[in-house]
Specification:
It is a single chain. β3 and β4 form a beta hairpin. This protein is globular. It is of the alpha+beta class. The protein is built from four helices and seven strands.
Length: 157
Amino acid sequence: MHFSTKTDIEAPVAFVHAALTDFDGWETAALRRGAEVTRTDKLRAPGPGMSWKARFRFRGKERELDLRLTEVEPEARLAFAGNSKMLDGTMSVEMVSLAPHRTRLVGHVTVQPLTLGARLLMQSAKLARGKIQARLNKRMAQLALDIEQRYASTKRR
C-alpha cells in the first residue's frame, strides 16, 4: 500500500534539510510521546546506516519497529526503511527548492504485510484509505508549520 503527500514550507531548502536531519530532536520528540527509542548504530556522523529501535503503544498493543536511514542526498532527499514483526515499509522525503525561501516537501510511504494478520490489517486500511491519507496530509502540514515557525524565530534574532 502506497501513500504520498506534499506541502510547501516558507523556509529555505537548507533550513528544511537541517530540521529534518535533526535526529536527536526526533528521538526526543518520540520519547516525549511515550515511545522508547534506542540508537543501534555506531556511526559518529549522520548518514546512511543510522538505525534505531523503537517501542511504543499503538491501538492497545506494545509494538516494536526497527528503522534505518538508507539514503541522504543533502538538500534533496532522505529515505528510511523500517520493519516490524508484521510489516515492512519504506519512507522517503524529497525537498525541492521553489524559491530562495520556499521549499516543497514531498513524502512517500509504502507498507507491505508480512503475516496473514497484517494482510487483514491492510485490507482494513484499504477501506479507510481516505482517512489515512487525510491524517498523513494533516501531519505533513503540521510538520511544515513547525519548520516555518522555527525558521521565523531564527529570522527575528
